[in-house]
Amino acid sequence: MQYDSVLIATDGSEQATDAASHACDLARRHDATLHAVFAMDTENPDLGDAVETDAIRAELEEHGETALEAVAEVAAAHDVELETTLLEGEPFDAVLTYVEENDVSVIVVGRRGRSENLRVLLGSTADSILRHSSVPVFVCPRTPG
Predict the structure, then answer these.
(1) CA distances from 103 to 19, 48, 61, 118, 121 (A)
(2) What are the φ/ψ torsions at residue 36 (nearest 5 degrees)?
(3) What backbone torsions phi and psi does residue 103 show, to the nearest 5 degrees?
(4) Rounded to an integer, what distance in angstroms lies between the CA atom of residue 51 and that of residue 118?
(5) pLDDT at 119 over 50
(6) Residues 70, 105: contact at Cβ < 8 Å?
(7) Phi/psi-derived region of residue 33, left when phi > 0, alpha when psi is between -120 and 50, beta in every other case
(8) Closest Cα partner for 41 from 106, 107, 123?
(9) Tens digits of per-residue pLDDT, 33-52?
(10) Which sign does the torsion angle of CA 82, 33, 77, 61 carry?
(11) CA dihedral sign of residues 100, 102, 107, 110
């Protein structure tokens, strides 16, 4: 299978940064466009209307930019060009919408934890992406060490 574009969905975690290496390898091997996205969870019910305040929005944007910068460092080390995008909305929905709108061929996400419960093992966003994606999804474990 040939991939024309690879997407790494990051939340800024170590697992996501580790998964970025796999995404870079895929993009390089397939001469594909590499996209990195971070979804600001502006629809999180725990935040209520607080997400509309400038301070909360600025904090979300700062966290997103930091997460995307970490992926950019990995891409630079792999000599892969990268397009970064800060998304808004419920993370799995924002990522899947981006995938459809940008004709992404494959998604790469990091996995979390060690549990028999799939949702805990993957994290709720990775689990939702895996269950609802129309394109292949690679779920990468944390690199030991």
Answers:
(1) 20, 32, 25, 28, 28
(2) -120, 130
(3) 50, 45
(4) 29
(5) no
(6) no
(7) beta
(8) 123
(9) 999 999 988 765 555 555 56
(10) positive
(11) negative
Neighbouring CB atoms inside 10 A of 30's CB total 17
Residue 93's CB is within 10 A of a number of other CB atoms, namely 16
Residues 6+ away with beta carbon under 8 Å from 118: 127
Q: Give the type of residue at 81.
A: E
SS3 letters for the chain? Answer: CCCCEEEEECCCCHHHHHHHHHHHHHHHHHCCEEEEEEEECCCCCCCHHHHHCHHHHHHHHHHHHHHHHHHHHHHHHCCCCEEEEEEECCHHHHHHHHHHHCCCCEEEEECCCCCCCHHHHHCHHHHHHHHHCCCCEEEECCCCC
What global pTM score does this model have? 0.85
